[in-house]
Structure formats: structure tokens, C-alpha cells
Amino acid sequence: MPRPDHLQFGALVHGSGGHIAGWRHPRANPDGELDIDFHARLARLLEDAGFTALFVADVVAIWGHQLDSLHRTTRADYLEPITLLAALAPQTSRIGLVATATISYNEPYNLARKFASLDHICGGRAGWNVVTSVVPLEAANFGRAGHFGHAERYARAAEFVDVVKGLWDSYTDDALIRDKSTGLYFRRDRRRRLDHRGEHFAVAGPLNLARPPQGHPVLFQAGASPAGRAFAARVGEVIFTAPVSVAEAVEYRRRLDAEVAAAGRDPGDVRVWPILTPIVADTDAEAATILAELGALIHDDVLRRLVQDNFGDEDFSDLDLDEPLPDFGAATNRSQSRRAGLLALARGERLTLRQLALRFSARSDTVGSAVTVADRIEAVWRTGAIDGFNVSFPYLPEQAERFTAEVLPVLAGRGLFRPPSGATLREQLGLGRPR
């Protein structure tokens, strides 16, 4: 299918904001994560502004590598995504509802049922962000000493997704007839068992639920390592990325398109949404001041851990925040692409650990007035490397309010943005319905 000719936006929603110290900002709501009315107001704001999807990230643990600095963050306090989005479904009518769920600490049948249920509840607006889990504390919560190895995680993920899709297809679209006169609830010849026997999973099926309204909820993915990108090319429909430069974004899209084609798929059936962390103010100077204020609110222990969480097993506790980042060896069983990107950034610009952490906590290339932010969004869009952005607002609700009220109208005025059309998330993304 052809790629969209206008920008799409998803929102990566955290209760008080995506910046590690956003909850401390004077205009943030520190109680937002557990306030369902706050989530509902935010969802309606984004929907009314024309956002395509609302995305909830997740790990099945306290969110971090070590516990000693987490008491200064919001990363130990967040709602389970599918539960939250099911609650938001009747509060919204158009925006897609995308939940993160790991293949490492779930079973295919359970997730197939949960996402099919969500798709029915919200009328065909559900999406699944497929992750394999990298936070060490997750494994310990499920009786494991560590995660599956990097290659094994993606092999399991590929089989897991195949099983889930098979379960979603347990019934044809016209299987459930609910005919009172004949007493037939469904046609037996339109239902099938799965009887999957694979290397990692054995699942009989069928699913105890009608086929989802979309056929399959939309699959989101964020793999950037070679194994992760290969997995994304095989199953992903919307790919989240985190490039450190425009050149990296262009190169990622080139490689992804080639791998999608090699996997027998049409590259036009895949959307790429890099992360965007905008700070919008009346002037560029005021926005830069907000960025500096947020940086000053990050405790040194949190800064250190912010970088360490993306490197793996290295101990940063004795490193001077104001010295250049030391050399590290090969990647461990963590997010290899993110580690490599941070190392390249630190070495290329000779950044100290503090500077790297501050850069990582808020991307300063999207900070400014509404026009400045729109200019930078347009510049990336014009490369042809992206289809939209996954927007993480540094603190809420103010930055979401300013982005929707000020930046989107500028982009719309340039003919780059318009609200999506279509009843389902697939239709809004311009993606076909699985047969």
C-alpha cells in the first residue's frame, strides 16, 4: 500500500510526563499516573487534536536497572497498560489504543485473548507493542536468573507472534451467526483449531473469542539491533525508532525497507515513527529555559542511572559525572542498538556522562517556539525516512496542550498534517486488513 502523504502522530503517555524529572516541574501533575480522569482528559485532548494513537509503554517490574535511585522517579508507579486502555475505550471513539506486552513473561493464548478483547471493547482500535524485555528486574519477578539470550528472545518472539495471529484467526469473520431460529451460534466449518507445536510453544486453540474487528490488532515494534530489525521487518506494522541524528533515521529506513522486502512484504505496509520529545514555549529562549529547568531537577544519582540503564552490566557508581564516558567492551544481553548509539554520540561529541545523560533525558533538537518545533518536524519528514512521530511530552498536561494547540495547526497550515480518517486503527494508518 502507498505510504501516507501526511504526518501521523502517536502519543507515548506517562502519567506526569516522559522526562525523568518531569513530575517535579511546577506545571506538571505528579498524581497523574493513577488518576483515570486525568488519563481520560488527556486521551480526549489527543483524539480531538487528530492524534492517530495513544501508546502506553510497560515493563513487568520496577522500571530500572537498580533500586537505589528509583525512589526519586515515577518509575515504580504505573498502571498495567491493557487495563488502562480498556478503561479509556468508552471515553474515546477514534484514537488508537496501543499497549505494550512482553513475549518473555506471557503466554501466547493469554495475550491473544487480551488483545482480541481490547479490540472488541474499543471497536477495532487496538494495537500491540511487541517487546522481548530487557530490564533485569523483570526476569527475577518470574523465577528466572536472567533474560533469554538476545538471539533466543527474538526467535521466541517470532514464534509467539505467529501463534497469536493463528489464534486471532480461530474463527472466520462470518463464523458467529447467532441464529435464534436454527439454534446455531456459530458455523462449525468456520472455526479451526490451531494445534501449534513449535520449538518454544505448544498451543492447541481455538481462541474462545470471535475474530477481532480489525482481523488482527496492529503490531507495533521497536527493534533496532540487527536481530530486532529483522524481527520488525518480519512482523512489525508500525516501527518505533530512536535515532540520534537525521542521517541515522534515513539509514535505518533504507535498511528496514530492504529487510521488509527480503521478508516478502511490501515496505509500503510498514510505518516508521521515531520518538519526538518536544518542549514548546512562546519563544526559543523560553523553551531552552524549560529544558534547563528540567535538567536541573534530575538528581545526580538519577543522571548516573539514566545512562547505566542503557549500557547493561557496567558499574557507573564511581564514575565522575563531569568526565568523558570511558570505553566499554562488547554489548551484553541488553538493548544493543541503544547502547551503540549512545556510545557513538558520546565519543563523537566528547560528551561527559552528565552531558550524555541530559541529552538522553530530553532531545534538545525539538525545543522552541511552535514554529521552530514545526520546522524541525518538517525537516525530518521531508527526508522520506519517517511516516510520523511517537511523541513523548516531557511533562503533562501543559506540553500536550501546547503541542496540540500550537504546533499541529502550523503543520496543518503547511499541508503536512490532518486528522486521520477511518473507523479502525488500521484504516487510520492506511494499513490493509488481514484476510
TrEMBL record:
Pfam families: Bac_luciferase. FMN binds at D58, T100, H150, Y154, S225. Keywords: Flavoprotein, FMN, Monooxygenase, Oxidoreductase. GO terms for molecular function: monooxygenase activity; oxidoreductase activity, acting on paired donors, with incorporation or reduction of molecular oxygen. Gene3D superfamilies: Luciferase-like domain (3.20.20.30). NCBIfam families: FMN_nitrolo. This is Monooxygenase. It comes from Dactylosporangium matsuzakiense. The lineage of its organism: Bacteria, Bacillati, Actinomycetota, Actinomycetes, Micromonosporales.
